[in-house]
Amino acid sequence: MPYNQNYFQKRTKPKGPRTNDRIRALEVQVISSDGKNLGSHAIRDAIEMAKNEGLDLIEISPNANPPVCKIIDIGKYKYDLQKKANKAKKKQKVINLKEIKLRPVTEIHDYNFKIKNAKRFLEKGDKVKFTVKFKGREMQHKHLGMELMNRIINDTASLGKVESEAKFEGKQISMIIQPI
Fold first, then answer.
1. Which of 11, 100, 137, 176 could form a disulfide with 164 if both were Cys (CB 3.0 to 4.6 A apart)?
2. How many domains does the chain have?
3. Which residues of 67-106 are buried (b: 16+ CB within 10 A; e: fewer)?
4. Each residue's pLDDT tens digit, 114-163
5. CATH number at residue 72
6. Is residue 89 part of a domain?
7. Range of the domain at 27
């Protein structure tokens, strides 16, 4: 027996708005292709009006009572929706979280280099998470870690503000600074 590939395919609902014969309502509010409100019509009459113009009847607002349908070309309608979605996507700003790891005994040159990178991240609009890790006996000098965090806050004050305060989590202190 031959293998029927279509048997195992998942059935999906058609995407997009309902058009023409797929509209379920008995009566619809019709808007013409030039934007004029034609009033309430039976679904068959509305579909006939759309076919006379060589266009489709598209359900714009299915939850209204009666549903609002517009006479336009389905291809043009989908194209316009896609253009709107792409425009909205372009306006979105993605904020990344960058992490900078330090030790309480970090030398001044390394510290300055890491602060320079943090300032660059903040200028780009990213959040920066500072982590100070303690090893062994350094745990007895937690005040050094807190002093380092205060120094970081002062050095980045012109570009960012503290989102979450410095707090201990096990053997490390962490703090997040967000751009102003």
1. 176
2. 2
3. bbbbbbeeeebeeeeeeeeeeeeeeeeeeeeeebebbbee
4. 999 999 999 998 999 999 999 999 889 899 999 999 999 999 999 999 99
5. 3.10.20.80
6. no
7. 16-84
